[in-house]
Design a protein that fits this description.
Layout (H helix, E strand, L loop, with lengths): L1 H20 L1 H6 L4 H28 L3 H13 L25 H4 L9 H10 L25 H13 L13 H10 L1
């Protein structure tokens, strides 16, 4: 049975290979991997252009309040934060500290660091300071698997500041930590 399955798969792969590499064989087919690949590439390029246009529009109208909302969306979704953290009753994580009121506590966590600097350090280089009672398990937010860019990290910081504090982040906020850490992650 395993041999029959192998032979069927082998014929399928060879047929697809021939359709992809042979102009004569591929021309006879309505659909070929090459045509589908080009269609997929065009769709990807169109989607990428739309995302870039949407991002440009977002940046033109971005303010602190919108950054807080977008940061919340990242934290509650793509940021994967709730795998290890929680915020009060939200989230299921116990490997990292509860982030409730982190906006009020961040400026006092590490001597010499403002709340923005502490939160940036926590996201770019999480092992630099580990909250008492927890092990260093967090990965840099700008590295895999999360892969946030600097603007998205600013949005997350704005949201975290809003948890018990007042957000001071703007779209023009420059984090010196971002440039230093980006070189390390790459």
């Amino acid at each position: 049975m395993l041999i029959v399955l192998f032979v069927v798969v082998l014929f399928y792969v060879l047929e697809q290979h021939a359709a992809y590499h042979s102009p004569l064989y591929g021309a006879e087919l309505e659909w070929t991997p090459r045509k589908q690949g080009l269609k997929d590439l065009r769709e990807w390029a169109a989607q990428k252009a739309m995302e870039e246009a949407r991002r440009a529009e977002l940046l033109r109208n971005l303010n602190t309040e919108k950054m807080v909302v977008l940061g919340r969306d990242i934290v509650h979704g793509r940021g994967l934060c709730f795998n290890c953290h929680k915020i009060g009753e939200a989230g299921r994580g116990t490997q990292g500290p509860d982030l409730v009121d982190i906006g009020a506590r961040a400026g006092n966590r590490v001597a010499g660091l403002s709340d923005v600097e502490y939160l940036a350090q926590s996201l770019y280089e999480p092992d630099a300071f580990t909250a008492p009672g927890f092990r260093p398990t967090m990965v840099p937010a700008n590295g895999p698997p999360v892969g946030l860019d600097d603007l998205e990290i600013l949005m997350v910081i704005a949201y975290l500041q809003s948890l018990g504090g007042t957000p001071t982040i703007t779209p023009n906020t420059k984090l010196s930590y971002a440039a230093e850490s980006a070189a390390r992650v790459q």
